[in-house]
## 1
Amino acid sequence: MKNTNPNSASPPRLTTVLWRGLRSKCPRCGGASQYRKWFTLHKHCPQCELVLEPASGDTWGFWIVGDRVFVAALLVLLYLGVLPRSWPGRLFVLGIWIAAIVITMPLRQGVCTALDYFLRVKQGQET
Ligand SMILES: [Zn+2]
C-alpha cells in the first residue's frame, strides 16, 4: 500500500523513495511531479508541500556519482574495444552518449532529490 500521508509516523522505505524519484514524482507523497517544466524543479511539492531542495546544492554529491555512471560505461566500452574504429562511428557513439546524458537528466535529478529526501528523513530533519 502506498504511503501518501506526509504526517505518517513510519519512515518511507528506500526502494519506495527511489521508485518515486525515478518517475520524477515527489519522494514523500509520490503524487505530484517534481518538475514544473522539463528540468525545472518545483520549490514545494504541489500536493504535500515538501520542500524538494531545501538548500541549493544539497544534491550535488548524488549528481557527481550519477554522472560517473556514464563515464564508467564509456570507459568500459573503450576497454572492451567495442567502440567503432572509424571517426564517424566514434562521433555517432559520442552523440548517442551525450543524448543519453541529457535525456536522463530529469530522471537522475529525481533520484538525487529522492536520495536527499531519504537522508533528511533518516537524520530526523524531515517527516
Ligand atoms: Zn509530495
Note: DSSP finds four helices and no strands in the chain.
## 2
Amino acid sequence: MKEIKIKITKDEEYNIYIEKGILSNLDEYLSKIIKNKRVIVITNPLVNSLYGTKLLSTLKKGEFSTDFIEVPDGEKYKCISSANYLYDELLKRKADRSTGLIALGGGVTGDLTGFVAATYMRGLSLVHIPTTLLAQIDSSIGGKVAVDHPLAKNIIGSFYQPKAVFIDPEVLSTLSDKDIKNGIVEAVKIAVIKSPDFFKWLESNIYQLLNRDIDILCELIKKSVKFKVDVVLEDPWETGLRKILNFGHSIGHALEVEAGYQDLSHGEAVALGMLIETKIARNRGICSDEFEEQIKYILAILYSSQPSRSKESKSVFKYVRNIDYNRIWETLTLDKKNIQGKIRFILLRAPGKVILIDDINKEEVIKALEEF
Ligand SMILES: NC(=O)c1ccc[n+]([C@@H]2O[C@H](COP(=O)([O-])OP(=O)(O)OC[C@H]3O[C@@H](n4cnc5c(N)ncnc54)[C@H](O)[C@@H]3O)[C@@H](O)[C@H]2O)c1
Ligand SMILES: [Zn+2]
C-alpha cells in the first residue's frame, strides 16, 4: 500500500491511500475518520451500478449507517442546481455536521460533492473515492472543489480538503478508453510542467498505459499524485506556484464552455488547450519548434493509436475548426486566473520550465486557433 501524507496546515492533514482492492477494505480507515458512523455516498447511476454494492458491503462491515444519492452522469450536472438538489436530499435525510460525505466517482462527482461538503452547514467531513484515472491522479488531490456556470468553468467554488482519499486502481478496469486517455492528458500536463524525467517516462510507457497495463497504471498514479502533492503543498491556496497546474486550462476551459459542457470532455479540452497554448508560446518565440513537436507527438499518440480511436480523434481535433473564436476570447476574459482585466496564461519554455504571462492579446489567441 502506498500512503502519502498531505499536511496543508498545522491542523489540516490527511492521507492519500493507493492500493489495488482498497475499495473492499476501507472500513477500518473510515471508522477513524467518521466517528459517528453515518455516511452519505454521492455518486452517479453508472458508477453506482458498478461499485455501489461493493462500497456498501464494505461500509456494512464497518457498521456504518449509509445512504446513497445519485446525480445524473455528465459534466453538465456539475452545476449549482445539482448542488441545490443535493442540499434538499441531505436535509430530507437529516444530515448533520457529524455526517460524512463520500464522493464515489470521477472528477465531476468529486468536485460537486466537495462543493456541497464545503457549504452544507459550513462543512461536512469529505472523503474521496475517485474512480476515473483523471480523478485518481488529479482532481481528488489538493482540495479544489467547484461547480460550473454556463458562462465560466469551475467559477463557483472553494478550497476544501478531504479527510482522506482512497485510490483503487482496480476500478479502472471498467473505464472507457476515452477516459483512460483523459487521465493520461492530465498526467502529461503534470509531467510537462514539473518533471522532464516523468515526461520521458510517459513517452516511453504511453502504449502500455493505453493498453491498461495495471502495474504501469499504478506507477503513473503514484508519480502523478506525488508531483501534484508537491505543488499543492508549496501553495495550497493557489496564490502563486500552484497556478502552473493550469497549463492548457485557459483555452481548455473556454472550449468546454463553448461546447456547453457536452461533446468535449475535460481531458480532451485540456489536450487541445495544451496544444493551442504551446502554439501561442511558439509564436512568441518562448518555446522551440522541438518542444511543440514533443507535446504534439505524445498527444497525437493518444488520439490516433488504434483504429477505433481515429474517429474520436478526428472529432476532437476538428472541434476547434467550427467554433466562434471571438466567443472563446470573451470566455477567456472571465477566467479565474485573470487579475484586473489582464488575461493570464501559463506557458512553457521547455519541459519543467514554466512562465506566467499576463499580456495575452486577442489577436494572438485567434491566430493560434486559426493555425491549429
Ligand atoms: N478539482 C480539481 O483539482 C480538478 C482537477 C482536474 C479536473 N477536475 C474536474 O474533473 C472533471 C472531469 O473528471 P472526469 O474526467 O473524471 O469526468 P467524469 O467524472 O465525468 O467521469 C467520466 C466518465 O467516467 C464514468 N466513470 C467513472 N468511474 C468509472 C469507472 N470506474 N468505470 C467506468 N466508468 C466510470 C463516469 O460516469 C463518466 O461517464 C471536470 O469537471 C474537471 O473540471 C477537477
Ligand atoms: Zn484539468
Note: The two ends are 43 Å apart (CA to CA).
